[in-house]
Specification:
With about 280 residues, the chain is of the alpha/beta class. Helices cover about 35% and strands about 15% of the residues. Strands 2-3-1-4-5-6 form a six-stranded mixed beta sheet. The C terminus is likely disordered.
């Protein structure tokens, strides 16, 4: 009998794979969405750390013409979220970070209580040396090992890439930069800091931060003040000349940063697709 015949399915009865993938991605974004985000900016004095903070805020709040000696907090709204941004004193590339700067860097956590959702470690596209890696390790150690789980690597000066992909850049820079990428669990983002106001990349950046928070089970919390104090003591003991260096630092010109001279950057004329992409760990 006709009623016993199996129902014949057509293409309309099956969901489109691309549409289904988009639907699931949207559902994941909505599940991860937070009403507010608390961010701490970390990095050198002149590679675009404060400028990236201004990009997120959509206005110039963090002064760029002089080096900040204290952590500064500002707030804004991005795509319906309240966003708190704390800019910290930039550290030096070739010299140990002064003790007063380290104290301010650690204080940034208490300025966005109950703790930052993410640390944005700002690194410009360019040559990356063993000294640069060591300086990052030294300063992030102030927060303890767990800080890496909550750190998103943000690449600035993306125009240097030209047609080279960020993945190729990371590979070419060798083990020092790859070590940092691995410590950040391959979470990174490339940002264009020449756009203010309604920045097209900000919603994507916020989503990546929210995904990080979801994967790590919540915001970062400094375990104890004693741990932070111990980390600072260890850094001072490992750098017996830090007091002398601190007196000599003052307001240094930009050439002290190994990233400050565009002329020193490696050639990036290699062939490759245009790609200012935001990481591979989606």
């Amino acid at each position: 009998m006709d009623s016993d015949k199996p129902t014949e399915l057509t293409g309309d009865d099956f969901p489109d794979p691309e549409e289904e993938e988009k639907r699931l991605a949207q559902a994941a974004r909505e599940a991860n969405r937070l009403p507010e985000l608390r961010l701490v900016m970390l990095g050198w004095r002149w590679p675009g750390k404060s400028l990236t903070g201004n990009t997120i805020l959509g206005r110039e709040e963090f002064r760029l013409e002089r080096a900040a000696e204290f952590s500064v907090k500002r707030e804004t709204v991005v795509d319906g979220r309240r966003v708190t941004v704390v800019d910290t004193p930039g550290w030096f590339s070739s010299q140990a970070t002064p003790a007063t700067y380290r104290q301010e860097i650690v204080r940034s956590v208490s300025m966005c209580s109950p703790g930052p959702h993410a640390f944005l470690l700002v690194v410009p596209v360019g040559m990356f040396t063993e000294t640069d890696r060591a300086r990052i390790e030294e300063n992030l150690a102030l927060f303890g090992e767990d800080v890496w789980k909550h750190t998103l690597l943000v690449f600035t000066w993306a125009e240097i890439l030209r047609e080279k992909t960020i993945e190729r850049h990371i590979h070419r820079e060798g083990r020092e930069l790859q070590w940092v990428v691995d410590k950040c669990k391959k979470r990174y983002f490339v940002i264009n800091n020449h756009v203010f106001g309604d920045h097209p990349q900000l919603p994507r950046l916020m989503e990546k931060i929210e995904k990080l928070v979801a994967e790590e089970g919540g915001p970062f919390k400094l375990r104890t003040e004693e741990n932070a104090a111990q980390n600072q003591t260890n850094n001072e003991n490992s750098n017996p000349n830090s007091v002398k260096e601190e007196r000599e630092l003052g307001a240094r010109p930009k050439h002290n940063c190994s990233f400050s001279s565009l002329s020193s950057l490696r050639s990036v004329n290699e062939d490759g697709p245009q790609s200012l992409i935001e990481g591979v760990s989606d």
